[in-house]
Amino acid sequence: MTLDDPPGGGEGGGDGFSRVHPLSPFIRGGLVVIAVFGYVLSQQIDRIVGAAGPPAPGEGSTPLLIPAVIVALTVFGAVLLGLLSWWFTRYRLGESDLEMHSGAIMRQHRQVRYDRIQAVDLVRPLLARITGLSEVRVESAGGGDSHVSIAYLRNAEAEAVRARLVGLSAEAKGVAAPPVSSGAVEGTDLPPGPADSAAESGHPGSSTVPGQESPESEQLLKMPVERLVASVLLSWDTIVLAALLVLALALTFADLGVAIGGFLPLALITGMRSFIKLTRWYGLTVALRGETLTSQRGLTDTRHSSVPLHRVQALEIRQPVLWRRPGWWALKVNVAGARIASADGDSGESVLVPVATTAEVLHLLEAVTADPGTTAEVASLVHDTPEGFVGVPRAARWFHPFAHRRMGHLPGRRALLIRSGWLDRVLQVVPWGRIQSMALHQGPWARRLDLASVDFVSTVGPVRPDVKHLSTADAQGLAYLAAERASHARQRSGGPVGCDPTPDTVDWP
């Protein structure tokens, strides 16, 4: 099979390579250039204003000419370096892998095999949105160094490349291609692109199979802006910021205003954290399309991400104490092989939903696990202590004086459920088939109290499942039960698609 006509942008030669958009290097460094230009302008504003008036006696135009020449040479050098970077940045959808060449002086060549691709997402920072460009971010199973970012392409070209990569990845793995929205994505302004014709033609790498219609997208969650703002206000960051403002006012009235400068960096950091959360999660929409969970979000930087359900390894819902009254939860997941990062250096977290109601969280859990039974077990743990729940003994209060009454685990039919936390209530869901390994450990004080803990190894992510300070007998029984059920889950085949069926092969870089 040959891919003679990759759906890329500019011509890259007769070897099948295509170049990214010529504005790409300027968009990647756009904010830096604006910041440097603003700093230089602020330093030279007095000279510029003075030069605009009549020259002083005995002075000519030479003092203004020198800075103008320096600025012109700097701009010319930046443009030249940007064009060199663009000329040497090329990509190709080859026979079996995606290739990316970059670097004018320090050459770099990256390859990602199609069967190693875990996710293909679209990212649109603010400057890219203004210019009508998108970044295609390819995440692979080889670790962070093997991820490839094609930045930037025109919106239609980015849609076509993404659809082609999804189809080629599915073809290389010998599975049905997950559906890819080839038209305008809900929540974004991406126009329809060449992916439509690729899908209809049945060309290798197309996002759908000829004669097979893409499943309809089922919207699972559309987060109201009011709830997002309220969740930011009901956070420790906001409380710290409010306390700093009150302290600053008190110092001002006490004629100690000079001390306010010491609190300014902390106040700025706290305020920026809240602002970033608002802009990052603005307009979040989560939908289920076939066997893939899709999400669109962002105010200044729009992101269109997809999570194949079979890549989900563990889930966690967390309820901070300030969210207890409105009944809100945050949902986090561990996704095999995923690392959220983009060309502009932004790295995110594996947070699926930053704030949702209890009903919405349970609905999302049922969609991800594809098991109403597990969802019912989670609901029982959220509202009560169900039959079969194994708590920690009274001796554990020496380690957890306030949380020991809530701590424990429930061995579910298809997943292990772990409950913990006092101020922040936490509930973790680990499908039996996703447990990679486990370790039973016992410190010196725990040994004297006849306590032991069981740690379960999952993929890299925010969810770190462990059951702390059980009785030694219960800990040993849990380790034996988990090993037995994990083995049975790995041998089981078929059933609904979700994060529970037979795990994927573990790949090592």
From TrEMBL:
Keywords: Membrane, Transmembrane, Transmembrane helix. Residues 178-218, 487-509 are annotated as: Disordered. PANTHER family: UPF0699 TRANSMEMBRANE PROTEIN YDBS, UPF0699 TRANSMEMBRANE PROTEIN YDBT. It comes from the Bacteria. This is Putative membrane protein. InterPro entries: UCP026631, YdbS-like_PH. Pfam families: bPH_2 (PF03703). The chain crosses the membrane at residues 65-88, 228-250. Residues 86-164, 281-339, 414-479 form the YdbS-like PH domain.
